[in-house]
Amino acid sequence: MSERRFSVVICAYTEDRWEDVLAAVVSVLRQSRPALETLLVVDHNAALLERLGREYEDAGEKVRVLANAGPRGLSAGRNTGVAAARGDIVAFLDDDAVAEPDWLRWFDEGFDDPRVMAVGGRTVPAWASGRRPVWFPEEFDWVVGCTYRGLPSGRVRVRNIHGGNASFRRTAFDAAGGFATGIGRGGDERPLGGEETELCIRLGRALPEAVLLMDDRAVIHHKVPPARERFGYFRSRTYAEGLSKALVARSVGAGKGLETERRYTTRVLPAGVARGLRDLVRGRPGGAGRAGAIVTGVSAAALGYARGTWRTRRGGGATFAYGPIGARPLGNRPTGGAS
């Protein structure tokens, strides 16, 4: 085991996920490769901040509860965690996910190469219904925050890793700044994303020799609630992804911002449609639904991208802020509301 110290950041925003947050923390505490600390960053929810503070008031430095020190949203919450982290490596885990016991061990192994600045892992869906909806294509598992068909397997170099199952050297943020607060999920209900893609591209520009890895042995299980198993959510999430990609392209350019997406759209998705139609011909359940969902998802994303591009050309859209990364550690007993 290396001497690298890991800080794990979990961002939480709602008491509706109380049990999920506790399970996420337990999965970190049970790692075969122990973490230095777990940082729970609460996004502008005074009641949750106080409740978590009470829950972990006896945890000492192993679990610390912080208020998001920036604007509402996941990016600022992650930046708050990074600023407060004492580890050499900062790992991120979704608040509705649990990590397998060797999660940090595989991350740690990736950083043996000094060129490696980030390591991501594989995220497996845990469907609330107990099984994947027959119409839901594996090529679109990113819709529910999971690893999707078309990504390379094993331990491979990638353009970007995915934020709910990720780790970065602390020095990566020193070089590139934090997560852009103009991208990703914020205070509204639209399920935007893309903040980790933008950061990884920016990191590659700041450190051209940097290596980013995906290691599919670093596994987490991500809860998929019933609402996200519905076709209406699928359609709205793919549309929102198009909006997000327009923002990413605005920030880092369409060349890098859409490099991986071009291969995905021209090779992975047509193969998925063909697979669905083949299943339909063979009488297998869900084939037509999966093919139709892929076509719908591509169309919705394209519409979102066109709408987002139009907005940015008119001077609208997000205002990007990369730093400075700031935090207000509150210890384990909150004394006021989140701000």
Pick out the low-confidence regions: 324-339
> So what's the overall shape?
globular
Annotation, overall tally of beta strands:
10
Main sheet summary: 10 strands, mixed
Radius of gyration: 19 Å
- What would the average pLDDT be, to the nearest integer? 88
The helix/strand class is alpha/beta
Residue share in helices? 40-55%
Q: Could you give the distance between the termini?
A: 39 Å
- Beta-strand percent range: 15-25%
CATH A-level architecture of the domain at 6-229 and 317-329: Alpha-Beta Complex
CATH first level of the domain at 6-229 and 317-329? Alpha Beta
The number of helices is: 10
CATH superfamily membership of the domain at 6-229 and 317-329: Spore Coat Polysaccharide Biosynthesis Protein SpsA, Chain A
H and E order:
EHEHEHEEHEEEHHEHHHHE
The name of the CATH topology of the domain at 6-229 and 317-329 is Spore Coat Polysaccharide Biosynthesis Protein SpsA, Chain A
Short characterization:
The chain has 339 residues and is α/β, with parallel strands linked by helices.
Question: What is this structure's SSE topology?
Answer:
Layout: E1 6-12, H1 18-29, E2 37-42, H2 46-55, E3 63-67, H3 74-84, E4 89-93, E5 97-99, H4 103-110, E6 116-127, E7 155-157, E8 165-169, H5 170-176, H6 195-206, E9 211-224, H7 231-252, H8 254-257, H9 259-281, H10 287-313, E10 328-329
Helix pairs in contact: 5-6, 6-7, 7-10, 9-10
